[in-house]
What we know:
Oligomer: single chain
Distance between the termini: 72 Å
Number of strands: 20
CATH topology of the largest domain: Rossmann fold
Number of helices: 10
Radius of gyration: 24 Å
Largest sheet: 7 strands, mixed
Structural class: alpha/beta
Shape: globular
Number of domains: 3
Amino acid sequence: MANKLTRKKAAVKHNKAAFMQDKVIRLRKGKKGRLKAGHPWIFKGAILEVGSNIKPGDIATVVNNENKFIGRGYYNPASEISIRLLTFKDETIDRLFLHKRIKDAIDKRDYLKNITNAKRLIFSEGDGLPGLIADLYSDTLVFQVFTFGMEKLKEVALKILTDIVNPKYVYEKSDSPFRKIEGLKSVKNWIGSNGQTSIEIYEGKAKFVVDIENGHKTGFYLDQRKSRLAIGAISRDKTVLDLFCYTGGFSINASLGGAKKVLGVDKKKEWLTLARKNALLNGVSGSMNFIDGDAFLILRKILDAGEKFDIIVLDPPSFAKDRRAIITASKGYKELNTLAIKILNENGVLCTFSCSHNMPNDIFSKILKDSAKAGGRKFSILKRCRQDKDHPIIKTIPETEYLKGCFLKFS
């Protein structure tokens, strides 16, 4: 027994010596130090010891309490997610590493070249580059950096991106509230030559003007591409209500698909102004109308007036900002879907979504069943929806599977 303990201590000492050259973070023993398999996040409470040579944003080697290698990533004590791993292999994080990650991510998007000139090139954890988002709109690259560690890698990563993609213009829109948590200030500016903040893109038959400066996120909901294209196929001769319509993505596709009437609703007048421009751009203004207002109130007014629609799109902002908000969010989703169901025509289709990773699929499915029951209707599932493949879902990282939805046909 004594010999076994001696050998174990010697092994730990040897492993510790092997990492003496590195910046090392050691995790706790037991449950507190246990990680989710394949998940790159390590929370502050799991950390036992941080090397004295490690500064915020530094790349560090992560070991368990016995000094066995776990992974390598960047560190920031200001965040509850204190370590974001870039690799689970014992490999160097350098320019070659970043080049391969970025090139692999871009190559995976090649399938979109005949569909659109707007796509997500880098999807943070989904592409093994936590803290980095990069979208291409025609000749303009728009990128966002959310974490201290990625901020320190930004210059190298951006040089690699621009060398591969060769955009005419580059715009940084790092203005997320996550940056404040990481100890970073918001940044919105051009890198190099100034381009136009309003950019025309195409997606299938549809054309859109995207406002990269004032629009939500980087300017357009690229993740909803597949569902937008799908709505056009079911819209001929239909009446369509598009709630939370933003700049008209679903509305335009419905009109181009032959809808006889489309009503788009959103709270922000500036977004509706852009939606009207997009209707003109596509030559479908005659069949469309956009009004500003609260979706819940407008649904109630439509219900009271006895008006019906053949297709209703519900694509609200995230109601569940964190796990604690699920109960409140569920009530909101149920009310919204129930109201919509009540104003659907016989054989009408509800296209309904949740964009929160905090809203589990099973809970969202139950909400839809409960809404149908409350609305006194039965449904069949025409289509299950999720984000397009340029927003890759990694099964070991549940947070990457955030967009969920269904096309439901009601009898």
